[in-house]
Amino acid sequence: MNKAILTKVLIILLISINLEVKAGIKNTIIAKVGRDIITQIDVENEIKLILLLSNQQINQKNVDQIKSTAIKMLVKRSVKKAEIDKFEITKYNENDLEKQVLTIAKSLNTNKTGLKEVLKKNNLNYDFFTGRIKNELLWNTLIYLIYKNQISINALEVDNELSKSVKQESKLYEYLLSEIEINYNEENLEEKLKIIYETIEKEGFENAVKKFSIASSSSDNGKIGWFVESSLSKVYLNEIKKIKKGQYTKPIRNLDSVLVIKLDDIKIKENKEVNINKLKKNIISRKKQDKLNLFSRSHLSNIENSTLITFR
Q: Are 261 and 181 in contact (CB under 8 A)?
């Protein structure tokens, strides 16, 4: 081998080694969650995906704003995944996955194929994207299996509530709602709420959902559906009645969390137009889901408290 060729080979080797060292430095471990690790690349991908799905530019200002949120989301996901693996949960509703993917694609003014292209252009893996959704769906399956015997609803009480509501009101109101939910024990809660409201004003409610909400509805832009007036708690209803369509409530305390609710739309029906049986089923279903959400938050909190989480 002559000297010129040897020199070229050495240069190539040095460049290769240098790139490997840089890659190793870049992909440093940020945190350990039980037996799992969160790396710098994990955080970068999470930040990019959050900004991308909320139609925000990937710039330093936005990265700095959501970095802590991204890390918290990764920690929670790791905790959930460990619990999912522990109970060997493998089944989830594939239709729910498809529905969420299509909803997100629509929010970006594209379809499933277009979404894949958008992710690819931003060096994001489609499987990484769907993996986030699958993890949440598997978690929902786990919570249901554990607590399904504790979510029974007294149908007679629902009947009484409906009967009273129908007799007292000549018209029934239905509200289309969206939500942002954060932990009540959040550090600097007042400051966090201030930032959330500023984000809503500047970037819109949906972007604030994707940046801050810990609720499972965050994957659907915070949308939680239609609610008949009689199915809402007095605390929620009192605040919702203070706002108009397109507006959002002041912070509402909900056990261990705080909610900001947006009123997306209102429907007013005459009593004779209402299908009472269908309404009853919807109310029971919603009350069961509320209980499951409560169990979910409580279960996650207990696991987090018992999981060794260290940051580096």
A: no
Chain-wide mean pLDDT for the chain? Answer: 86
Q: Is the pTM of this model over 0.70?
A: yes
Answer whether 211's CB lies under 8 Å from 66's CB: yes
How many CA atoms, within 13 angstroms, populate the side-chain half-sphere of residue 74? 28
Are 24 and 297 within 8 A, CB to CB? no
Residue ranges in the chain assigned as alpha helix (H): 3-26, 40-53, 60-86, 94-107, 112-121, 126-147, 155-168, 189-203, 205-212, 234-240, 276-306
Query: With 50 as the cut, is the pLDDT of residue 11 above it?
Result: no
Q: What are the residue ranges spanned by the domains of the chain?
A: 18-148, 156-306
Residue 62: both structure tokens together: 């936005």
- 153-210 pLDDT, tens digit per residue, is 888 888 877 776 666 666 788 999 999 998 887 778 999 999 999 999 998 999 899 8
CATH code of domain 18-148: 1.10.4030.10
- pLDDT in the model for residue 297: 86
- Cα angle 20-24-29, degrees, rounded to a multiple of 5: 170
How far is residue 184's CA from residue 249's CA, in Å, rounded to a whole number?
Answer: 16
CATH 3.10.50.40, applies to 156-306: yes
